[in-house]
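Sequence in, structure out. Go.
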Amino acid sequence: MNILLAHIKKDAITVRKLLYVWAAFVGIDLVFGIATHALHISPKELSPQGAAWFMATIFSLLIGIISTLLFQAVVLMLLIVRIIQTDSLIDPDAYWRTRPIARLNLLKEKTLFTGSLAIASALAVFALGVQSNNLDPKFYLPLFLGLVAFAAITKNLSNLILTFLGFTIGAHILSGVALSILRYLVSITGTTQSIFPIHSANAASAGAFAVYTLGFLVIIAHQYLTLQTRRSQILLGLTLFLAAFASNFGCRLYQAAIRSPFLITTQKNRRGSGCPVPRRFFDANN
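Output:
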């Protein structure tokens, strides 16, 4: 434990400037949040001038919260990447390799440090009561793991950005080709609804989340414990491909099945799918 704490202290000193900036944004967010919650006064209880001032103050505080949250998220991502790449896993001359630091201990230290920062940021966001109907909380876990995975197999930030663009674009192109082939096969074979259920879109979304989470966990553990970057890159590409395929699997196959004359749909089923389907396909089946 002493070794882990000593290594965390070393990393904290290395990234102290970014750490100070991140802590400052978290503090500013909390101050804005406290001020916003403290102004729980109904505008109806105020004069017209007071109500206008009140609404302007609330609006300014909300703008401040949103702006600092965005800056906080950017700084946090830069901080995580810097912490991971401080002890490079792909540089054979990295300083940590000359010290008595086991790979497993290094993995534990990075996980503890970066995980603590991510949890602290999440708690600050939840403390502010910031919610979004379009952003599921489970989105944060694969985002954090993906950032760590990409940082673990790259040397610096620019290399990470290029790797991210290359892998994600390539994975989506390949998954699009695979989905196009499946859509064609479904359209000519008349696959029934029992094989491609109406609610497959929700199952596909859960499947993509599982693929991202498990895949990134495997990549991180593999890279830290084996230092086999090429294999980690292959695993990363496979993870992104499977996740991209799964995320669109339900909707694409449902839409392809809608085109089939063997599948009769109803308005209720079309709405329950959660997938955008051209109305002409519905009209043709009714």
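Check: Residues 1-110 form one domain. The CA atoms of residues 178 and 245 lie 8 Å apart.
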